[in-house]
Amino acid sequence: MKECDVSKLDRIFERGAHVLTRDHFPVQLESSPGAPPALMVMGNEACLSGPTVGIVGTRNASVYGRAAAAKFAEAFAKQGITVVSGGALGIDAAAHEGALVGGGQTAAVLAGGLDRLYPAMHAALFRRIASQGCLLSTFAFGTQPIGYRFLARNGTIAMLSQIILVVEAPARSGALNTAQNAADLGRPVFVVPSTIDQLSFQGSHALIRDGATLVDSPDQIFEALDLQPTLNFHQESTAITEVAKRILDALTVEVKRVEVISQATGLSPDELLAELTFLEMDGKVIREGGGYALVP
What we know:
Rossmann fold; Arc Repressor Mutant, subunit A; three-stranded antiparallel β-sheet
C-alpha cells in the first residue's frame, strides 16, 4: 500500500472509524440472511441496538414528500427510534434531518467507503449524523459509490431496519428495491400516500396495491413496534405555531395561489410550501388547483 494511502487510513481511524464484526452486529442484522461479514463504522453503532425504522424514497422529492419524511422521522426520534436511511438527496436527507431535529439518533448507510462520502454536498450533514448516530458501509475504504453498490446499500438498510417506511417513490425507484428486500426478510413495509395524480408516488401506490400498509401517522409504526407513544402525534401536530397562525389567518375557504399567500404572510415560497404541507397533513388546509384553502 502506498504511503499516502496509509496516511489517509490513519486519519480516518483517528477520526473514530472502526470495524464492526458479526459478533457485535445488532440483532436484526446478525439474523438477516446475506448479512455482510463486517461493517465499517464512523460514530456509535449502539444507536442500532434499539428499535429502528428505515425511511427511503426518491432523490427528486417534492416539498410534501420531504416534509412527510422529516415529520415522521422527528416523531420517531422523540420516541427513541433510530432512523436509518441512505444519506442521499431528497427523502433520505429529510429523514436524517428530521431525526436530528427531534434530538434522536440516525444512521446513514453509504454506497462507498467512509472516505468517499456521497453526495459531497452532504458533508456537514454526515458529520452531524456521525456525532448523533453513525455512518455505515459494507465497503472498504477507497471504494467509489457507483452503480450496483447502491443496490447493495439498499439491502443493508433493509437488514438494519425492523420496519421500512417508503415516502414518495416513483414507478422506478431504489426505494422499491429496499422495500422488496425488507419484504423478502419478512419485515413490515409501510407507505405514505399522496394524491393519485402525483407521478412521483406511483411506485408508492403500487406497493400499497401489492399489500404494503398505508400509513398516515407515526402512531401506526409505534403500534407495529409494540411501543407505547410517549407523545400524542395528532395532539402535538395540532399545536399552532406563530407562522402557521399567520398562514391560516391569510387563508379562506376560497382557493388562493401560493404567490398570493406568500405576499400576504411575508414568507418565502419554500418556507410557505413546507408549512402548508404540515397544515395539509394535519387536516387544516386543502390543496386544490395549484392553490390552498381552509378546510370548510
